[in-house]
Amino acid sequence: MIIEKAERILENHELCNNCLGRCFAKLGKGKNSERGEAIRNVLNMEREANKQSPIKEPQTCELCGNIFKKRDYFAQKCYDKALKLGLEFDSFLIGSSFPKDILEKERAIVEEFELDYAEPINREFNREVGKALELLFQKPVNKKNPDVIFIIEPYTEEIKIQSKPIYIYGRYRKLVRGIPQTPFKGYKESVASIICRPFAEAFRGKAVFHGAGREDIDVRMLGSGRPFIVEIKNPIKRKAVLEDLAKEINSSEKVEVFGLRFVDYKTMEEILTQNHRKEYEAVVYVEDGVEEKDLDKIVKTLTNATIHQRTPRRVLRRRSDLTRVRKVYKVDGKVIDGKHIKLRIFCDGGLYIKELISGDMGRTTPSVSEIIGKRAICEALDVINVEVIENGAKSPHNKEKNKG
C-alpha cells in the first residue's frame, strides 16, 4: 500500500527524498530523507522488475525547492548571528516561517493522496536545523521552555531571535520626596528610571518596571521597602552580578534596592496581583491643637476599624468614583507638640491615608478629623512596610541580601 501510494505521488509530483519520506513520517523511525530514499529504492526495484523506468530524485523538488540541502547553512547563519550579538543562553529552539503557497501545496498533496501519516514541512525543517545547531552550540534543544528561539524564514534567509524574558525581584526604598514612581510629565527621573537603567545596560534588553502598588510623589518609601519586579524583554545577556547592579542604583542616594534575585513569571504574577497590607507613618497637623486624649481617641477608634472611602477628590480625574471598604488593623502614635501628632497605621492596601486623616469632606469615614472633631491634615507621609505573601508565607521585612 505504501509503495503503491508513493508511486502515485511521484508520478504526479517531483519530490525530493525528504518530502517523499515526510509523507509517511509517522511510520517507523529515522530521518525523512532516509525513509524517502528507502521507499524510492523499493519502488524502483519493483518498477525495474516490471520493466518500468525508475523515478529518480529530481534536481529540484517542486515542493520544498531543495531547502533541506541548506540545513547546515541555516544552522551556521544562526550560530554566526548569536556569536556576533554575544547572545547568552543555555537552551534554544528553532522556529520557521514558510510561505503560504508552499504550505497550501503540501496540504493539497496530503489531501489528494490521503496521507494520514504525514508530517508538516516546517516541523521537519525545525528539527533538522536544530540538530545541526546543537552540534555547533553544544547546547540542547528545549521544546518546552527555551531561553532563545531562532525563527528562520527559509526563502528570504532572514533570521529573527526571540529571547525569553528575565524577571528580577527586589525591594526599593525611596529616600527622598519629589520623585514619581514611574515616568511623569515634568519630572526628569523616576524610581523606575533610576532602577531600570543599570538592568537594561547589564542585560542589553528593554527593562520594564513593575511595582507592587505605588506611593505618591511626595511620599517616601522607607522601612522594609516596596516589592518590585524588573522584567527584561529580549535580553542578549542572561547573567549579571545583581549585587553590582544594586550598588550602582544605590549610588543615586535617592533610591535604594536590596533583596535582588531572579524569579520566574509565576512568582512575578503572584507578587504583583496581591492586595498588599501596608504600614504607614504620618505626621498629622491639627490646626486647633491636639492633646493626648485626642490621640487616645484616634487609636481606640481606628484600631480594627472598617473604613468606607469614596474615591478621593484629588484623583477623581483618573479613578472611577467608587466607595471602597478597607480595614485598619492597628494604630499607634505619639504627640509631637501642641499641633502635631505622629501616627503609625497598619491597614489594607488601597486605603488612601491622606484622606483617612483629613476625611476629604466626608468622603472617608471614619477619619481622624471626624474622630477628634477638628480639622486634621497629613503634613508628611512615609510608607514603612508593604507586606508580601510568597509561597503561602509572608516575605521577610528585614533587608534581604541580593542574590545572583
Automatic annotation (TrEMBL):
Active site (record annotation): 216 (nucleophile)
GO BP terms, alphabetized: tRNA pseudouridine synthesis
Catalysed reactions, semicolon-separated: uridine(54) in tRNA = pseudouridine(54) in tRNA; uridine(55) in tRNA = pseudouridine(55) in tRNA
Stretches assigned to the THUMP domain? 37-165
Enumerate the GO terms in the molecular function aspect: tRNA binding; tRNA pseudouridine(55) synthase activity
Q: Does the keyword Isomerase apply?
A: yes
Which keywords accompany this UniProt record? Isomerase, RNA-binding, tRNA processing
> Which positions bind substrate?
280, 352
Extract the Pfam families matched here: Pus10_C, Pus10_THUMP_arc
- Entry EC no(s): 5.4.99.25
Q: Which NCBIfam families match?
A: pseudo_Pus10arc
What's its job? Answer: Responsible for synthesis of pseudouridine from uracil-54 and uracil-55 in the psi GC loop of transfer RNAs.
> To which protein family does this belong?
Belongs to the pseudouridine synthase Pus10 family.
Q: Which HAMAP family match?
A: Pus10_arch
Q: What is this protein called?
A: tRNA pseudouridine synthase Pus10
Origin organism of this chain? Palaeococcus pacificus DY20341
Its taxonomic path starts at: Archaea, Methanobacteriati, Methanobacteriota, Thermococci, Thermococcales
